[in-house]
Automatic annotation (TrEMBL):
<dbReference type="InterPro" id="IPR050640">
    <property type="entry name" value="Bact_2-comp_sensor_kinase"/>
</dbReference>
<keyword id="KW-0812">Transmembrane</keyword>
<dbReference type="InterPro" id="IPR036890">
    <property type="entry name" value="HATPase_C_sf"/>
</dbReference>
<keyword id="KW-1003">Cell membrane</keyword>
<keyword id="KW-0472">Membrane</keyword>
<keyword id="KW-0808">Transferase</keyword>
<protein>
    <recommendedName>
        <fullName>histidine kinase</fullName>
        <ecNumber>2.7.13.3</ecNumber>
    </recommendedName>
</protein>
<feature type="transmembrane region" description="Helical">
    <location>
        <begin position="301"/>
        <end position="324"/>
    </location>
</feature>
<dbReference type="Pfam" id="PF00672">
    <property type="entry name" value="HAMP"/>
</dbReference>
<keyword id="KW-0418">Kinase</keyword>
<dbReference type="Pfam" id="PF02518">
    <property type="entry name" value="HATPase_c"/>
</dbReference>
<keyword id="KW-0597">Phosphoprotein</keyword>
<dbReference type="GO" id="GO:0000155">
    <property type="term" value="F:phosphorelay sensor kinase activity"/>
</dbReference>
<dbReference type="Pfam" id="PF06580">
    <property type="entry name" value="His_kinase"/>
</dbReference>
<keyword id="KW-1133">Transmembrane helix</keyword>
<feature type="transmembrane region" description="Helical">
    <location>
        <begin position="20"/>
        <end position="43"/>
    </location>
</feature>
<dbReference type="InterPro" id="IPR004358">
    <property type="entry name" value="Sig_transdc_His_kin-like_C"/>
</dbReference>
């Protein structure tokens, strides 16, 4: 006992003899070890959760894009089916209640359907049935064969009759066709009505290849080896894949009331991040599955960097603590006084005459830090400018294809119906439109050029819709040479036409105004159409720019102008249901003079 007490006294004495510097070193080494361990564990947990949330948000956005593309594909095929229903030869054949009664008419129907399948590769085969269950088919005879004795035996027969002429979608014909185990198809089924009496005279079935839906997400860059699965209302895979649909069916049954969901789950023994989006229009589900190991491999380097940052910060804390003593109180106060200037935004190097000892090195490190902060501020400002320009380019790239798709659809429809004169006019107008809007690669054009492009656009729409609308231009000639980003007025006019005039169901007038007002340029598009309610106005005034067809044209245009002119409040929208809509854009007149005087005229 006495020996032990002596040994403890000796240890206590030796500890007392250790210098303060070494004591601080030992103390902070212990703190360093604990700090690194705790911070590393917390960092990994927080970083993994943040990455998981970001990946989930990104995957949901991708699924929304796929949903939009799938719906666009189905809408295009729906338009082709409507054109087929209106074919006079087909109508005549079905009115006779026997599709084989008139061979000459049957031949013309056959030629029409063959041309349709050749022009639209998404369609694999076309069936139609008269009211006597006579069957006629055009397509690959080796696949999509109808196996029922009568069309009335199909499980969906009464459903399609009760659907008021709208189509229904059934995977592999809803059991009405022989199924090929190697490939799927989706049947678009609808009633054929007599164009004169509106009575049902038959059933039309368009069998759509599964590859048409694969193209909806085939261009997605899949750096995380993400699998995309498209499921019908019965949770069956529309596109043949090796995905674990059994596990997905159990998962979807738990979230079937949700529009979208992100969950981490086990599939075939693999840890997966599963994202789900429900398409309420068809009761389909779009699911993406990304292996967590792919995410972990990508984030491993970032984790190591984070750990290294934590270790480096801890080491710097340790080094700074070693040199704390009363001998350096005065120079540290000077250093602290200089640091307080940072709070006021003054980044000024400190001058402390302490030679090249530890405090001198601390002074030099502080001065280097100030220099790096100054450089960082400059770099952040430059990066911010680049980001804003990138956002502008992105929004412009998104909006450019919009009009071309619709115009090509119109040209295709006119060509199919044999209206060659209208095809020539619309192609000529389209060429003039793109000569103006491509502008030899320039993104900035004059208001005069913008109006010329708008006139070409409306000329095309006039061919499509005839007397549905008229246009009035009220333009101050003084601003024709002012420069703005191109494609500003077209989206607004397009919304006025589609969601104002056309939605009203009767002819209307679109008024385009451009004039000067107190150092600003006012651009205005007004219509006397259907107008919009308060809910739609709030959607257009929201902060988030989404892909909604009604809001994207207006809000995308506003975002482009906000980025280009650096002005936040640039647009005012006035509308009431039944009283039309007026969109007013006010932008700075950076090129004109407040003393300009000129005439106000009609710009035709």
């Amino acid at each position: 006992m006495q020996v032990a007490r002596q040994w403890m006294n000796q240890v206590r004495q030796r500890l007392s003899d250790i210098s303060i510097t070494n004591k601080l070193a030992i103390f902070y080494v212990l703190i360093l070890i604990i700090s690194i361990t705790v911070c590393t564990l917390l960092y990994q947990q927080i970083y993994s959760r943040l990455v998981y949330n970001k990946i989930g948000e990104a995957s949901i956005q991708i699924l929304y894009s796929i949903k939009s593309s799938v719906n666009q594909t189905i809408d295009n095929l729906n338009n082709y089916s409507k054109m087929t229903l209106a074919n006079e030869d087909l109508q005549s054949t079905l009115r006779n209640r026997n599709i084989y009664s008139d061979l000459a008419t049957q031949k013309r129907v056959h030629e029409y359907l063959v041309h349709l399948i050749e022009a639209v590769p998404q369609i694999e085969s076309v069936y139609f049935f008269d009211n006597e269950s006579h069957e006629y088919m055009v397509g690959n005879l080796g696949i999509n064969q109808f196996k029922l004795g009568s069309i009335e035996d199909a499980s969906w027969y009464h459903e399609v009759l009760d659907n008021n002429g709208s189509y229904i979608l059934k995977l592999n014909g809803g059991g009405a066709f022989f199924k090929d185990e190697k490939r799927n198809f989706v049947s678009m089924i609808r009633v054929v009505r007599d164009t004169e009496s509106i009575k049902p005279i038959g059933i039309l079935i368009l069998n759509i290849r599964e590859s048409a839906f694969q193209l909806s997400y085939g261009d997605i860059v899949d750096q995380y080896k993400t699998n995309i699965t498209l499921l019908d209302e019965n949770k069956e895979s529309i596109v043949n894949t090796d995905d674990a649909t059994n596990e997905l069916e159990g998962y979807l049954s738990k979230v079937e009331t949700k529009e979208y969901d992100v969950k981490r789950m086990q599939i075939d023994g693999d840890d997966m991040i599963v994202s789900h989006l429900r398409d309420s229009q068809f009761n389909w589900n779009i699911v993406s599955m990304m292996p967590v190991r792919e995410l972990s491999s990508e984030s491993r380097a970032v984790n190591w960097i984070g750990v290294a940052v934590i270790v480096m910060n801890s080491i710097l804390l340790f080094i700074g603590s070693v040199f704390i003593s009363r001998m350096i109180t005065t120079p540290i106060k000077k250093l602290l006084a200089s640091m307080r200037g940072i709070e006021r935004g003054v980044f000024k190097p400190v001058e402390i005459n302490v030679g090249r000892n530890e405090i001198g090195r601390l002074r030099d490190g502080y001065n280097i830090m100030i220099s790096e902060i100054q450089n960082l501020i400059k770099r952040v400002i430059e990066e911010h400018k680049i980001k804003r320009q990138t956002e502008l380019n992105l929004l412009q790239a998104q909006i450019k294809p919009h009009f071309l798709y619709n115009t090509l659809d119109s040209i295709n429809a006119l060509a199919i119906t044999g209206k060659t004169d209208e095809v020539s006019e619309i192609v000529e107008a389209l060429g003039h439109y793109y000569r103006i809007n491509l502008s030899k690669g320039r993104e900035i054009i004059t208001i005069g050029e913008e109006l010329d492009g708008l006139r070409s656009y409306l000329a095309i729409q006039k061919i499509r819709y005839g007397s549905m609308f008229d246009v009035v231009y009220e333009v101050d000639e003084r601003i024709l040479n002012r420069r703005i980003p191109k494609l500003i007025l077209q989206p607004l006019v397009e919304n006025a036409l589609y969601h104002g005039i056309r939605a009203q169901g009767e002819p209307g007038v679109i008024t385009v105004t451009a004039n000067l007002a107190a150092g600003s340029i006012l651009l205005q598009v007004a219509d006397d159409g259907a107008g919009m309610d308060e809910e739609m106005l709030q959607l257009l005034s929201g902060e988030k720019l989404d892909s909604d067809a009604v809001s994207f044209g207006v809000r995308g245009t506003m975002e482009r102008l906000r980025i280009f002119f650096g002005v936040d409040h640039i647009c005012q929208i006035e509308s009431k249901p039944g009283n039309g809509t007026k969109v007013t854009i006010q932008i700075p007149d950076t090129e004109g003079s407040e003393h300009d005087r000129g005439s106000f005229s009609q710009y035709d």
